[in-house]
């Protein structure tokens, strides 16, 4: 959700917006995080033992404090939690000071929060829901160029290519099946509470128009489809991306008039034809169109 919102923001606000650089930086950081998780996902796909994987698991503990775990891997004999860090440089994990120090290639040293404590916090919270299931966790460094220079001897910290070996050792240690995979998977999903960012805008704050998915130029609507004047790409469903952006940043429903402004359409009749596939909701004298969560550009 956060990544999609940030992508929509960068598409829809002007470069001179006072927070444009902030949002651009946040988007870059979010992409780095997703890239690191993709690296770990690649290795998890090689697991042969029956299992279930939940990525980006978010839940509240008994004290209503939020926890966000990058990966939860459920096996018949245990649960494994993985905290992924996509950080380059030389890494020093300092247990006594509870910090991660990263020395960059230019010699600058930076401090990060201790991911070991972060992981332990997650494990403690999960154990309150599953007190009789063995729980194990690890901090996974997804950046292949990172060097793990020092770490506490009793803390599992390693590169992504060691994930399978770590899991295999834990499966040998806990080889007796004690849980129902589907049941525990369903229990965890019932606890899942995705975090919703407070990125909200008004229609007036956004750039209007339908933008080409190939070159990002503003498209023109003619003869029932959108045409890019720059690269000549055509798509009669290109307005779906604009609706998706509106849903992420403004509201889950939209009026014909708002849609005309959003997509820079001169005719409300053309707008009505484009919106005909969306569910209609009547509220007093106003007619709204519900925007589906999974709406995306499709077809040509």
Automatic annotation (TrEMBL):
Residues 32-149 form the NERD domain. InterPro entries: NERD (IPR011528). PROSITE patterns: NERD. This is Nuclease-related domain-containing protein. Pfam families: NERD (PF08378). It comes from the Bacteria. It comes from Lysinibacillus louembei.
């Amino acid at each position: 959700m956060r990544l999609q919102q940030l992508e929509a923001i960068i598409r829809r606000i002007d470069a001179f917006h006072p927070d444009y650089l902030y949002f651009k930086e946040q988007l870059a950081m979010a992409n780095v995080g997703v890239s690191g998780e993709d690296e770990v996902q690649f290795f998890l796909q090689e697991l042969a033992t029956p299992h279930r994987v939940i990525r980006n698991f978010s839940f509240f503990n008994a004290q209503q404090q939020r926890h966000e775990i990058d990966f939860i891997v459920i096996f018949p004999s245990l649960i494994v939690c993985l905290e992924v860090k996509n950080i380059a440089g030389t890494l020093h994990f300092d247990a006594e000071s509870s910090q991660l120090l990263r020395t960059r290639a230019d010699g600058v040293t930076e401090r990060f929060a201790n991911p070991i404590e972060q992981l332990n916090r997650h494990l403690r919270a999960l154990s309150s829901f599953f007190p009789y299931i063995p729980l194990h966790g690890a901090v996974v460094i997804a950046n292949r160029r990172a060097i793990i220079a020092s770490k506490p001897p009793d803390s599992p910290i390693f590169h992504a290519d060691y994930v399978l070996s770590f899991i295999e050792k834990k499966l040998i240690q806990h080889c007796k099946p004690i849980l129902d995979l589907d049941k525990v998977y369903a229990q965890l999903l019932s606890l899942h509470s995705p975090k919703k960012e407070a990125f909200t805008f008004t229609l007036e704050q956004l750039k209007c128009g339908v933008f080409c998915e190939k070159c990002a130029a503003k498209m023109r609507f003619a003869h029932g489809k959108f045409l890019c004047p720059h690269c000549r790409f055509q798509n009669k469903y290109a307005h779906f991306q604009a609706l998706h952006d509106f849903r992420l940043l403004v509201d889950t429903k939209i009026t014909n008039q708002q849609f005309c402004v959003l997509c820079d359409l001169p005719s409300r009749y053309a707008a009505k034809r484009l919106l005909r596939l969306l569910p209609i909701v009547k509220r007093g004298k106003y007619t709204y169109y519900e925007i589906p969560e999974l709406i995306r550009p499709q077809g040509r």
